[in-house]
Amino acid sequence: MPKLYLVRHAKPAATWGEDPDPGLDSTGQMQALRTAQALIERTTPLQILTSPLRRCRETALPLEHEWSQPSGIFPAVAEIPAPSLGLAERHTWLQQAMQGTWSDMQRMAPSQSPDFLAWRASVIDAVRRLREPAVIYTHFIAINVIVGAARGSDAVVCFRPDHASVTIVDTDSDALRIVELGREAVTTVLTRG
After folding, report:
1. Cα distance between residue 7 and residue 53, in whole Å
2. Which CATH code of 3.40.50.10610, 3.30.465.10, 2.60.120.10, 3.40.50.1240 fits the domain covering 3-180?
3. Domain boundaries, the chain
4. What's the predicted TM-score (pTM) here?
5. pLDDT confidence of residue 187
6. What is the mean pLDDT of residues 168-173?
7. Nearest one of 134, 124, 126, 128 to 171, comparing CA atoms
8. Model confidence pLDDT, tens digit, residues 119-166
9. At what angle do helices 54-67 and 26-42 cross, to 10 degrees?
10. Of 36, 70, 63, 47, which is closest to residue 166 (Cα–Cα)?
């Protein structure tokens, strides 16, 4: 069973409701460096995969440098697709959606929304198909999809991974198993803290 190290991106320079693709702020850059050092101490070099979004790609940079290898872009673990709303409305929508289940999110989605259940299934399927150990830089909700699948939970949020935390799972084509949950956040995903 391949071991996957799921790294939530470090602290971004803006929230999801302010900028659709922010980079890291100075705190985030330090978090990324510390997480890379922790991974170096914990494992030998593995493939590095990352969401295509800037905050994940920038979080991966210190590990890429230390292991002298580039990341592969892994679109399946990108941010949850948003309904066609303005940034402020999108922020409110996600805050509300995070309180319920995936079934609730799909049922209460604004018109013209993506199929959230299909997106969730695609994240789980893509991760289960991986055959080699990897470090994967991803997002709060995508990590929750994977942890929820391992726990058999339909909750959108079943765990609050902190910025630059590392959650470890084992995977095969049939199952996901939690090895270790990463450090949990004191604040919610949608705050600047």
Report:
1. 14
2. 3.40.50.1240
3. 3-180
4. 0.92
5. 55
6. 90
7. 128
8. 999 999 999 999 999 999 999 999 999 999 999 999 999 999 999 999
9. 40
10. 36
